[in-house]
Amino acid sequence: MKSRAPSLILSWIAQIIAIVIMGQTLYFKFNGAPESIVLFTELGMEPEGRMLVGILELVTCILLIIPASVTFGAILGSALMVGAIIGHCTVLGWEGDRFYLGILAVSVLIACSVILYIRRYTVPFLGSALHGDETPHEERY
Amino acid sequence: MAVTGKLVVNLHNLARFTNIAVPLLAGLFFVSGLRISFYFHFLSVGFLFLTILNAFYLYGQRGHSLLRNFGILGQGRYILESVGPELRQYLYSNDTEERPFNRNERAEVYRKAQNTNSASSFGSQKNFDSTEVKVRHSMFPIHKSELKHTHITFGEERGCANPYTLERPFIISGMSYGALGESAVRVFARGAKQARILMNTGEGGYPKYHLEEGCDLIFQIGTAKFGVRQSDGQLDDQKLRDLVANETVKMIEIKFSQGAKPGKGGLLPKEKITEEISELRGVPIGEDVVSPTSHAECTDIESAVRFIAHVQEVSQLPVGIKMCVGLSTEFREFVTEMKRQNVFPDWITVDGAEGGSGAAPKAFMDRVGIPLFPGLKRVNNILTELEARDRLKIVASGKLVGPGRQMIAFCLGADVIASARGFMLAAGCIQAMQCGNNTCPIGITTHDPNLQRGLDITLKANRVENYVNNLEHDLVELLCATGCRSIQELSFDHLYVPKDSTLHTYIINSK
Fold first, then answer.
1. Which residue of B153, B185, B254, B314 lies most exposed, with the fewest beta carbons within 10 A?
2. What are B90-97's contacts with CB under 8 Å, separation 24+?
């Protein structure tokens, strides 16, 4: 059960959006930009947490670029963004610049969700259950 | 459920526990993230995702009952099951228990193909009980120089205008372009040319790549007659004439049935139909190609024999038939009709029910048709009784990948051995059993260019040649051991057939 071409293009657009948004924040995280340090200090994760999240986001970007691992990247990316949104809701708040940053996280989460929806049949642990009764003679029964 | 005081793993309870524990933990970690450290949110997000997935398993999907009842813990079964085949093949299966070819059988072909030492040590791993057939040797083995040649001339019995002489008694059995990818066709065709043997094209339509490689060919006419078909499914005589005008098309084989699926036509799954194949065969893309169960011209025994005569007449080449034995009485009538019309095929390929296929219905693969050895013996017996054995040759096929089984087939009356999987193994097949999915990891039965890339045509063609050389070497040594000077001198009496063998019923003058 393969996705048709137009939806695959849509998936790639979503992947590129997610990569660009996450990628540009990496620069601030790894360089220790003051705004970034303030954020992670408020979260009580400075500096290890900043590096850890940065590395995980870098891994997400790489997974999203390589065709064989796109769904894994989308899962990891959406998990990180849910974490970021929890941060905004519980600690950071949504005022001023924070609102802008929060919206970026929401955008990436939406992009990852779109990728996962388009590629839902290849998502690990989910794909076969989704078309379980449509194709009964596939490898699982 | 039995109540015991013993500590046992109760998977039902464990699953119920997990289904409640996962959302509880998600909440617990979330609170910890708020109160203790934001780091806890790594866990709370993970468990949140697990909770959603588990809810989907339990209440969303309906396809998998196990997941609907037990949730994520049920996945454990699928995960373990999915790695089972690899674990068994790599670690847990012993050297003699895998099917269709066990590790020892595969290793023997690999060694022959790679021209490495094939001596075994310490002792045989085969059974020496009451089921396994063995070859009887002579007290006075002869020397190689005393052997007669092993040439076989097809078509000599009926004075065919263009007889064909096969130098070594081996044929690469019918595998179509379609079942095989382009590289694999080239490997086998080039290897056949180097080894001076024949290659059967299978029922794959016009043999484009076979002809490019220039090996001697048997063109197979399947029930769908790909390549030589009129729109109504009958034979197109002119197309056949055009085809046999190619110098390398040496013989024609009419396929009546195939051991892997006797009573069914050929089957090419839709995954493997590329544009080129759809053109060569004249079939649509995106649908499984299922050949008819029989030839349009052959409705009964009489018309079947007439069709053989017709193809012989049109092609002016040796014409054989391929069949898996079903009813002995039917075969007896078939030969009787051949005698009545005085039309004999130039050979009969007896395919055993254990024969291979890229795609066949499981019930047919497992349960239909007579296995090679009893089938071959029956055919040989019936032909001998009806005094027709000297009118044709017998080709045997069905798991004949090593010299041991081949020797038994020769003793049962075969003149020539045909094998497909033997040559696939020689080309590097690892028995991944994915021939029908277009995902062959070796690149033999796939059209995926990324997978075919792994198959080095020159090198593998050499391996095919080595394999034939070493098969012939072993055949010669075995022949010398029996004291016979040619394959034709071998007989049933050269076999030791124990009580529980399927061949035991044929023992008349047991030695």
1. B153
2. B95/B125, B96/B125, B96/B126
Q: What distances in angstroms separate CA A18 from CA A81, A124, B455, one per listed residue?
A: 11, 20, 39
CATH 3.90.320.10 for the B134-506 domain, yes or no: no
Domain boundaries, chain A: 21-127
Domain ranges (residues) in chain B:
11-92, 134-506
Q: Which residue of B has its CA nearest to A130?
A: B61
Structure-block tokens of residue B311: 């193809």
Higher pLDDT, A12 or B266: A12
Decide if A43 touches B, using CB distance below 8 A.
Answer: yes
Residues 239-278 of B with CB under 8 A from A: none
Sign of the C-alpha dihedral computed for residues B429, B430, B434 and B437 taken in this order = negative
Q: How far is A6 from chain B (nearest CA, A)?
A: 19
pLDDT at A141 over 70: no
For the cut 50, the answer to whether the pLDDT of residue B511 exceeds it is no
The Cα of B12 is separated from the nearest Cα of chain A by a number of Å equal to 20
**For A60-96, how does the pLDDT look when each residue is reduced to its tens digit (9 = 90+)?**
999 999 999 999 999 999 999 999 999 999 999 898 8
Phi-psi domain of B221 (left: phi exceeds 0; alpha: psi -120 through 50; beta: other): beta
CA dihedral sign, ordered B411, B415, B420, B422: positive
Q: How far apart are CA B36 and CA B425, in angstroms?
A: 62
C-beta neighbour count of A70 within 10 angstroms = 21
The DSSP call for residue B92 is: I
Picking from A83, A129, A134, the nearest residue to B42 by CB comes out as: A83
Count of CB pairs separated by less than 8 Å, A with B: 56
Q: What average pLDDT score do residues B222-245 get?
A: 91
Question: Considering only residues 435 to 454 of chain B, which have any Cβ-Cβ distance to chain A shorter than 8 Å?
Answer: none
Q: Mean of the pLDDT values across residues B336-344?
A: 96
Helix (H, G, I), strand (E, B) or coil at B130: coil
A79, A133, A139: residue with CB nearest B46 = A79
pLDDT band at B3 (very low <50, low <70, confident <90, very high): low
Give the minimum alpha-carbon distance from A9 to chain B in angstroms, rounded to a whole number. 22
- Radius of gyration over alpha carbons of chain B, in Å? 28
Q: For A44, which of B37, B42, B75 is closest by C-beta distance?
A: B37
Is ipTM strictly over 0.85? yes
pLDDT(B345) > 70: yes
Picking from B380, B300, B309, B316, the residue whose alpha carbon sits closest to that of residue B348 is: B380
Q: What is the mean pLDDT of residues B433-444?
A: 93
Residue pLDDT, tens place only, A31-45: 989 989 999 999 998
Choose the closest CB to A132 out of B37, B41, B61.
Answer: B61
**Above 70 in pLDDT, residue B46?**
yes
What is the Cα B85 distance to its own chain's centre? Answer: 20
For the stretch B271-307, what's the b/e string if a residue is b when 16 or more beta carbons lie within 10 angstroms of its beta carbon?
A: bbbbeebbebbebeeeeebbbeeebbbbeebeebbbb
Quote the minimal CA–CA distance from B414 to chain A in Å. Answer: 40
Q: Do B45 and A129 touch (CB under 8 A)?
A: no
C-beta atoms of A83 and B41 within 8 A: yes
Q: Which residues of A touch B44 (CB under 8 A)?
A: 86
